[in-house]
Design brief:
Elements lengths: L6 H8 L5 E7 L8 E7 L18 H14 L2 E7 L1 H7 L1 H15 L6 E5 L11 E4 L2 H4 L1 H24 L5 H4 L5 H10 L16
Parallel strand pairs: 1-4, 4-5
Antiparallel strand pairs: 1-2, 2-3
Length: 203
């Protein structure tokens, strides 16, 4: 497993940037539920929690343990959640952009510079951000944002399972698994499904 470092952040700290934010989205490709972005600003003297990595490579228990430690070590952190209604109205691309912008807005400290996994944020000045290819694997701040977002969204999808148990959200978290597709075939779409995705083509 490739473990992320603070190399990118250290270069930015040396260049005079103080508040560097790492951001990552979770749930962009799901059939149901919101899209969520996690944002984390570490202080320059941070001691990274051991084992921090791309959230997709971690077990749920490991993610939860790291989430708590990230929140303790971070200068500040936030999430941006954009609902299914907005996804259906504006499309997932715009909804994802709104989630990034909301996560930045929700931070207690305004960042000087943002590092984003694979994306540019159209609502931020270009000179204040950088899209990092495979950022969630190599950049510690982005990895931390991915873990914050993943734990938050997974817990939300478990709560939706209580309202819509027939879809199995607690298992697949809204992704298009065979179990989920079969449940949609049997029960139709719920209020929390993304009708803008034209899900019939996946069934």
């Amino acid at each position: 497993m490739i473990l992320p470092t603070l190399n990118i952040e250290k270069d930015l700290w040396k260049s005079g940037h103080k508040y560097i934010c790492g951001l990552d989205e979770v749930g962009r490709g799901c059939f149901a539920g919101p899209v969520v972005v996690g944002a984390v600003i570490f202080p320059s003297d941070v001691v990274l929690p051991e084992g921090i990595a791309d959230s997709k490579l971690l077990t749920p228990l490991k993610r939860k343990n790291l989430e708590s430690r990230i929140k303790n070590e971070a200068l500040c952190w936030a999430v941006g959640e954009i609902s299914v209604d907005i996804i259906n109205e504006k499309g997932i691309g715009e909804a994802t952009q709104l989630a990034f912008a909301l996560a930045v807005k929700n931070l207690a400290q305004k960042p000087d510079f943002c590092l984003i996994d694979a994306f540019h944020i159209k609502y931020l000045e270009e000179f204040k951000q950088k899209a990092i290819k495979n950022g969630d694997k190599i950049c510690a701040s982005i990895s931390a944002g991915s873990i914050i977002a993943k734990v938050y969204r997974d817990e939300l999808m478990v709560s939706l399972h209580d309202r819509y148990p027939e879809y199995g959200f607690s298992k697949h978290k809204g992704y298009g698994t065979l179990e989920h597709r079969n449940a949609i075939k049997k029960h139709g779409l719920s209020r929390v499904h993304r009708k803008s995705f034209n899900l019939d083509k996946f069934l």
